[in-house]
Structure prediction request, 629 residues.
Amino acid sequence: MKLSNSIVPIRKKLTLPRRPGEFFIEAGIKTVSFTSFAVIILIFIFVFRETLPVFFPKEHKAVQSEVLESESYGDTAPSEHDKEIQNRIDMSQALETSGENGKITMESITAAEWQPVSAKPRYGLWPLFFGSLKVTLVAIAIASPLAILAALFSAVFAPKRSKELIKPVIELLAGFPSVVIGFFALMTIATISQNIFGYQYRLNSFVGGVALALAVIPIIYTVTEDAINSVPGYYFEAAYALGATKWQTALFVILPAVTPGIFAAMLLGFGRAFGETMIVLMATGNAALGSFSIFDPVRTFSATIGAEMAEVVFGDNHYTMLFLIGSLLFIVTFALNAVAEFWVRNKLLKRFRGE
Amino acid sequence: MKNILAALVIGLMVFGFRGAEETITVKGSDTMVILAQRWAEIYMSKHSGVNVQVTGGGSGVGISALINGTTDICNSSRPMKNSEREKLKKRYNTLGVEVKCAKDGLSVYLHESNPVRELTLEQIKGIYTGKIKNWNEVGGPNAKIIIYGRENSSGTYVYFKDFVLGGADYISSMQSLPGTAAVVNAVSKDKYAIGYGGAAYAKGIRLAKIKKDANSPAYEPNPENIKSGNYPITRFLYMYLPSRPSGAIKEYIDWILSPEGQNIVTKVGYFPVK
Prediction:
């Protein structure tokens, strides 16, 4: 009580009158932070708005019966062969059911196939979701033991000098452009691992998973390392005082103490891997199969958007479905990050405060 | 201060528009980007008053740009879909004007070591729809066929589906890769692979000879066979306009269809329409 009484007057003395520029600086910082917040909200709204037609299909007006002749320009008398090509074109045009008039049905969403460009389009989400999940799990299974052990090593065992080398090098991997990792996987990892395992499909979820692991390792490593560094010193001291060796301390005291942190690291890694596009687009073969073998090609949510968005007819069913996939991706990664950020971190902090 | 600024902006706008007398924007197919750029460069070097701007993005992107009115000419490696024509009609009450500006042959790639030399259209259809699963069904070794194709946003994907598969769906186990180069690369590394794409000549792959049916002769995808129409898988490359061309755009298109313009088509690696 006495202490706080003595602090207050000093604080009052220190409050200086506001400088003239301060208001603008404050306002500027506020604007910037609120802008980024607003951008996120707006992206949210935009993505979900584009998805709406799936749930509330628009009523289509009957197509005008008036027939307009399509024109061509600069044609010369076509040869026999040209006529034949034209015939085939006309035939295929007749086959095409106008995607615009069809509605997205529950049946087409739950189909086992992803065939958006078809006379009878099927937008089966299951094989794509399963594909994303499969590649991500392979990536996490490879990345997390490596990253966690690396973090443990550099935080507890490594001499200061090698720690100063290891940490930035692993973190540098996070800045690696994912196209480069994807290209490396496509050209090198795929060939090497096919030679080792001798499986049938050169590009598959295993190759994609290995490549994704490269992108995920730095995330898991950094977060785990931070968690280990935040362990209070008395954990170590107590363990050493009880006669534990360094190894015993690391494995049986420190590691269990930071499990929520490791869990958060894995969740963040999962979110990154789930949303990663370029690597899986290049390395997984992109065939929408719902198989359980990790050596079969897969097609993921993100790769589907990456590959198809550029040329889809705007406002089409296919377009809407891609946005639905986008929303699902958004929800999954958002939820994972939120859980990792708020729930797990709080738990970790509480544990160290001894609450 | 404000007045000076406004004057500056207005001046910039006036002079900015004066810089080029006439600007033609061309947008669309990635397959045709090199061709369109070559056309534009040579045309601009001969007609100083015209500025032709070419961008790629894909056939679908070009067609959407045409529908939204952000491009004068749209390049497309596939014919416009009915749904797209419908949209164009809603906006402008025309179905668009189609200009066939070049021809292209599509090759079927096999691995170098594959003993299969020729395939009929029916066999290719069987392979891509999943009826034929093993190479020994088409005279090859006893091994499963590994199928590669393009992404469904590609004009080549749509063309192959419509003409070779007769509109049937590709089998789900087809691995779709972004770009012809990726398909060529994949086939060159996979002993039992099959793929398709433009007439690319790369190490490690062989271009299959194609037969129209079991009794007709097999043709290699070389320039003579594609020009003569003997090679069965050929397609047109298109330009689309919202209405009949006039003025500078008409001159440009007429030049493209002239012997000079068509000569460039051959140089770039495609085949003239005339």
